[in-house]
Specification:
Layout: H1 36-43, H2 55-69, E1 79-83, H3 89-97, E2 102-107, E3 123-127, E4 140-145, H4 151-161, E5 165-173, H5 182-191, H6 200-215, E6 220-226, E7 229-234
Parallel strand pairs: 1-2, 1-4, 2-3, 4-5
Antiparallel strand pairs: 5-7, 6-7
């Protein structure tokens, strides 16, 4: 989709550096007039055209949820969670695209707690690992795993956090190429966890389980795989 308000951007962070916030100059542009892709590019998130092009799929998901709500996107009161805050670009992107929604970011790095201080009426940042945390007070419409990208940790987070998604909601895993990228595994071991394994078989086993649950209509409505991105929709209650 062509976005007349979108501005070309560059990726504003690396996984191996401390969180560094970037707030662009919007000038006369109302950020709520931008597409999700335009917002991602402007903030330097890798979810848009800068790298992964995930936002075109997210836009369709949001459109579907808004149709079910029967109200304009700006009025939809969703709860969205993202594990892996990085520099806060995605949280800001979501906050502008869904101005009536509540956004929660999870990250294990204490430095992330300082991000998005100017939009804390809409954005909450929790320091901790969702894979080992107890269930939050409310359920999420969308839960995004954009955290370690390590196979065993992806599986552990799904096992713990699938129950955090409301019926009819979505659980989304990004950057699955990392689960078979040896260079990424070495980088993760060097910077985060020397004991990380990243066995691709863990993901294959998990997907086989998703297929069986989908076939059995066991709480899973459907799932779709796009390049590096797995979208899992929970069945309605």
């Amino acid at each position: 989709m062509n976005d007349p308000f979108a501005r070309g951007g560059v990726r504003r962070y690396l996984d191996t550096v401390a969180p560094e916030e970037y707030v662009p100059n919007f000038g006369e542009v109302n950020p709520q007039d931008l597409s999700l892709t335009g917002l991602a590019d402007l903030y330097g998130s890798d979810k848009g055209r800068i790298k992964h092009n995930y936002t075109k799929h997210y836009e369709r998901i949001i459109d579907d949820l808004c149709r079910l709500e029967g109200v304009p996107r700006a009025d939809c009161m969703f709860d969205i969670a993202e594990a892996g805050v990085a520099c806060g670009a995605s949280l800001r992107m979501w906050a502008h695209y869904l101005p009536s929604s509540h956004i929660t970011g999870y990250d294990i790095r204490p430095d992330c707690a300082k991000l998005c201080a100017d939009i804390r009426d809409q954005v909450e940042i929790v320091i901790g690992d969702p894979a080992t945390m107890s269930e939050p007070e409310g359920l999420y419409d969308i839960f995004i795993d954009d955290a370690s990208h390590i196979a065993e940790e992806i599986v552990a987070m799904f096992r713990n956090c699938w129950s955090w998604v409301r019926p009819g909601g979505y659980y989304i895993i990004e950057d699955l190429r990392c689960t078979y990228n040896e260079a990424y595994t070495r980088q993760f071991q060097e910077h985060f966890n020397p004991a990380a394994v990243n066995d691709r078989a863990a993901i294959v086993h998990m997907i086989d389980g998703l297929m069986q649950n989908c076939d059995a209509r066991n709480g899973l409505h459907e799932f779709h795989y796009y390049p590096q991105m797995l979208v899992i929709k929970k069945a309605e209650a």
